[in-house]
């Protein structure tokens, strides 16, 4: 890795933890959607050029496994 940069930021939609609209959507599927969206918003960025991406949990609650 030669250079570390923040290219963009994006978040998943909000929903209730139990019984909400995303209750049957896996975290991996939401993450894949985020990555596709980021690449679409930044056409000069090639997916093959990415070494890592960081995902975080900002508001942990009972729906996050606690």
TrEMBL record:
InterPro entries: Thiolase-like (IPR016039), Thiolase_N (IPR020616). This is 3-ketoacyl-CoA thiolase (Fatty oxidation complex beta subunit). Residues 4-61 form the Thiolase N-terminal domain. Keywords: Acyltransferase, Transferase. Its EC number is 2.3.1.16. The gene is fadA_1. The keyword Oxidoreductase does not apply. It comes from Escherichia coli. One of its GO terms (molecular function) is acetyl-CoA C-acyltransferase activity. GO terms for biological process: small molecule metabolic process. Gene3D superfamilies: 3.40.47.10.
């Amino acid at each position: 890795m030669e250079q570390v940069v923040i290219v963009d930021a994006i978040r998943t939609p909000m929903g209730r933890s139990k019984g909400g609209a995303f209750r049957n959507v896996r975290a991996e599927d939401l993450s894949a959607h985020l990555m596709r969206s980021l690449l679409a918003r930044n056409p000069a960025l090639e997916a093959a050029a990415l070494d890592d991406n960081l995902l975080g949990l900002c508001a942990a609650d009972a729906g996050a496994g606690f």
